[in-house]
Every structure is written in C-alpha cells, then in structure tokens.
Design goal:
mainly alpha, 9 helices, 0% strand
C-alpha cells in the first residue's frame, strides 16, 4: 500500500514539475513579446529601434530570444523554492521541534506511550510521523510474548528505518530541479553572451565605418544575458544550499530521535 502511495505521489510530483516548467516558459515568452517588446518602450514606437532612455523593459528586450528562456528558468527557481519552503514548513510540524522532542522523551521515560502517540498526532510533520510509527510498534512489541528481546529490537529498528525511508523522498523532492537550474542558468546566459558578441564583432567587421547601432545592440545583448544568467544561478545556489541545510537538520533530528527511542526500548522491554 505504501509503495503504491509513493508511486502515485511520484507521478503527480513529476506532472506538477513538467506543468510548472511549460507554463513558466509560455508565460515568459508572452511577457517578452507583449510587455518587454511593446512598441511604447522604444524610440519611434518600433521595437527595432533603441529603447527609450531609462526604459528597462526595452533594454531587457534587446537581450534577444535567449531572454525569455532565462526568465523562465528564474520563474521555475522561484516557484520550486516556494513549493519546497511550504513542504519543509509542513514537514517540521505545527509546534517547535525541540519542545516536541523534550515532551516526547518525558512521556516515553514515564512509559506513557499512548500519550506520546497522541502528541505525535498533534505535532504532525515528518518527525512526528516517524516517531508515531516507532511508538506504535513499541507498544505492540512491549506486549508481545512470542518474540525474544533481540527479535523485538530488530523489529523496532526496522520499523523506524521504514518510516524514515517513507519521509525522506518527500523532503528532497524537486531539489534536483533547483540544482539543475543553478547550472544551466549560467550556461544559457553564456550562450546569449556569445551570440551577442558575435553580432558585435560582425558590426565591427563591416566595410568602412562600423555599424554603431548593430555594435551597441550586440554588446547590450551580451551583457543582458550575462546578467540574467548570473542572477538566476546565484538565487538557485542560495536556495538549494538553504533547503539542503534544513533537510539535513531535520534528518538528523529524525535519526537522533529514532536512536533514542530504540535505546529506551532496549532498556525497558524484556
């Protein structure tokens, strides 16, 4: 049953990711064409001309067709950063984790397992889910008369490992998209930079006087794409490292709590 739920969750997660990427690209292409490329942003009402002085929409438009791709990458980074933030907030549960663990340890030490399970229901989140699974197994094994102590310890550890394995994929899901965006944002920006420089050098290579307009447009395209690519990559790296740190901290607490529960089980169950 749990494997089926994981498969269904994985499929829905993949579909969500694909939809976000496609919609981001479509939206950014529309913004590039109809907002940035609006004729009111340019001299003479023609987007083939220079942007109006101080008009940043027109300036960004001059970055060329790579710009909407870079914009879409940035939107994807923001969208999945929000999604990961909400997911991790939910995974931490409703109350402070340290207070929850302190209360849980006191209840377990006093052998109040049912009350501890009730606290897990109130807390919710990944840590509470793992501890609830372990405590439920703890309760069942404590009243089991057929298994010896070693078998009970193995069963307890296995239950906690399985519960943890169910929670961890949810915590790290979609982080690979943010890390991928961190890499490709710079590379896509570099492509735009190279294309812009090609145009600039082509303008310099014309016979007679260089084409000043084409030269300026080429340099503008190169610099705009460089700036957008670096910005997207920087934001993605910051968000990826932040979420990785949060996940590592929560995973450590899950492992530490499970280890503590197993040790308590060893000392109290015969």
């Amino acid at each position: 049953m749990s494997n089926n739920k994981q498969a269904a969750s994985g499929n829905s997660g993949a579909l969500f990711a694909v939809l976000v990427i496609i919609l981001s690209l479509v939206a950014c292409i529309a913004i590039f064409a109809f907002v940035l490329g609006n004729s009111s942003n340019f001299q003479g009402g023609n987007n083939e001309n220079h942007p109006l002085p101080g008009n940043y929409l027109g300036i960004v438009y001059k970055g060329g067709f790579i710009v909407p791709v870079l914009m879409a990458i940035f939107v994807v980074i923001v969208a999945f950063s929000i999604e990961r933030g909400l997911t991790l907030s939910k995974a931490k549960g409703k109350g402070a984790i340290n207070q929850f663990l302190f209360k849980l340890q006191n209840l377990i030490s006093n052998n109040k397992i049912e009350e501890a399970i009730h606290e897990c229901d109130k807390q919710q989140g990944s840590l509470a889910n793992v501890m609830k699974a372990g405590l439920s197994r703890y309760n069942a094994l404590a009243h089991d008369t057929e298994m010896d102590k070693e078998q009970k310890e193995i069963a307890m550890q296995k239950e906690l490992e399985e519960a943890t394995a169910l929670e961890l994929p949810m915590l790290s899901k979609n982080l690979v998209i943010i890390s991928t965006c961190a890499s490709i944002a710079t590379l896509v920006g570099l492509i735009g930079t190279v294309l812009g420089m090609i145009k600039a050098f082509s303008a310099l290579a014309t016979a007679g006087a260089p084409d000043a307009v084409a030269l300026a447009n080429g340099i503008s395209e190169a610099l705009i794409n460089t700036a957008l690519g670096i910005t997207g990559s920087t934001v993605a790296i910051i968000m990826y490292n932040y979420f990785t740190t949060q996940i590592d901290g929560l995973t450590y607490k899950i492992d530490e709590s499970g280890f503590s529960l197993v040790n308590t089980f060893k000392s109290k169950v015969k």
